[in-house]
TrEMBL record:
Residues 60-71 have a biased composition (Low complexity). Belongs to the glycosyl hydrolase 14 family. This is Beta-amylase. It comes from the Eukaryota. Residues 79-88 have a biased composition (Basic and acidic residues). It holds the Pfam family BES1_N. It comes from Lactuca saligna (Willowleaf lettuce). InterPro entries: BES1_N, GH, Glyco_hydro_14, Glyco_hydro_14_CS.
Amino acid sequence: MATEMQRFGTSEEEDEEMGLDVKEEGENDEDDDEKNSTPPTMVGVDGGVMTSSRSNNRFQHQQQFQDQMTPQGGGRRCRPIEEKERTKLRERQRRAITAKILAGLRRHGNYNLRVRADINDVIAALAREAGWVVLPDGTTFPSRSQGVRPAAGVSTSSTSLPLQQNQAPSLRGISSACPIEMDNEACQMKGLFVPSSAYDVSSSGRSQSSHMLGVEVDGQDDPLIGVSVDTVAGRQVVDMPSKLQERDFAGTPYVPVYVLLPLGAVNMKCEVVDPDGLLNQLRVLKSMNVDGVMVDCWWGIVEAHVPQEYNWKGYKRLFQMVRELKLKLQVVMSFHECGGNVGDDVCIPLPHWVAEIGRSNPDIFFTDRSGRRNPECLSLGIDKERVLRGRTASEVYFDYMRSFRVEFDEFFVDGVISMIEIGLGPCGELRYPSNPVKHGWRYPGVGEFQCYDRYMLKSLTKAAETRGHSFWGRGPENAGSYNSRPHETGFFCNAGDYDGYYGRFFLNWYSQLLINHADRLLSLAKFAFEGTFITAKLSGIHWWYKTSSHAAELTAGFYNPSNRDGYAPIMEVLKKHGVALNFTLAHMNINMDMDMDSSEALEDPDALAWQVMNAAWDSCIAMTNGRHYSAFTYLRLGQLLMDPHNIMEFERFVKRMHGEAVLEIHA
């Protein structure tokens, strides 16, 4: 029992110190009759206790059910000791989680919560920070002093990435005696995202919104929320408008907007594809006051044939076109293969000389348990192995970055290049290629560990011997295959081997190798691009997030089960090198079975996004995507964007991001 208490981060003594004095289920069976006549209790956030009454019908139903379960002799059915212990353990786990939530809000959120705060106080604090007024009786409505016009039924704080706006339910039962005010600095610190507009709201949506609003305010028209308020029979009734108004972003902070260029803007001969057409598209972007463009500089194009012979010709011409239009540049150091992933419309392999080495030594590539190689990028195992014509992988990456910095020195000096993103793995993201479509993976499979090349196995063997368990120098044998579900495996299922001694050792080694790779490469990038804004890309693997193991994250290299924060160590590395985070949720719609409900994957992209962004905020890391923008990049330039209707909408979007007033368009 003591071991289990340590696992959940609490103990009985700690429970008493925190004031969590709620009686545990099944602790005293002889008090059952007394409990049946007493209103049940609910645990508050910091040990506060709330009572809630239950209807007579529900009580009678429970009593009848208990009578049915009672033997003829009148004695009550006694629960097994094991069940009582499990109940106690679950209760203590809930208490520990509650205490940690409250401690985190106090420490990182500057929430002024009382010592015995309950859940109502927490919800009220969150609502006030989002710009809502919360009255002592729980009545909640948008603040007038807020410099925005929130659309009815649309939350001013989204729990998803900007392109995934959700309607928020009404906040009810909220009590607070604190004065309400809008703190701009607090909102900037929290990075609150406000949906840009309420386009195409259906009649059913409007009906739902009017029901969800549920406000009682002064008996006059409110110009901020765009509703009319009348008094009927002593109560104020809200009259919703027929069309929701668009948000006014005038005066909001300026957020630079960039557009990602097509993957094949420069071909395998390092020549600009259709320079005239591209120039015309760039001029259109310039006319809309777009700040700049983002472009991938592919390793497979620049250093294609001979080691350390770099051909930057096509990129130089492209950069000159951008500079002549007075646009900025964000450049990605792309050390991975293009083709076969979501959104890839061209094929750009790794350099030919690397492929030649791979044919004689395939262990330079990531390898799964079945021995299948993935030439999408180089294995982390050769970061310090001189297997690339006398150079290590780290040295190859650094030489490439240094050549770029020297070749385009004038663009750095003139400030044309505003940001460099360092590719850290497949798709340029910091992760293992655990879900390759080319090997048969389909959403929402858990994927496979990619640690079976001889260099990574050598590292694993060494780590196991250092730990004193040489037989641990192997990968998991019961982790299933690419398309397995967690419950189908012995490793990822509830109480599976992932949380055993070997599992914790293996996952720590596997994830630490990824973190060490980021640390090593970002250190070199900081040296090569001294004084330049540097970012790293992190992909959100959100399926199976609601399971205890977070299986898909584990195979991708994020040691983030339900009892451990796997993203904080990554943020510490970014903070160490002064690198910003580019976070994006993985979109797998084209790979999923259309007949399958996404809820079957137990995914939670919103919760994952919040976890990652909170980890970034805790480390004071800037984000180039997410709710707290330092810049916004649109994916991507093409004929779809150039459609007249789309380009008009995009121009309005750019103005909003720049904090400019936008005239409403009425149908």
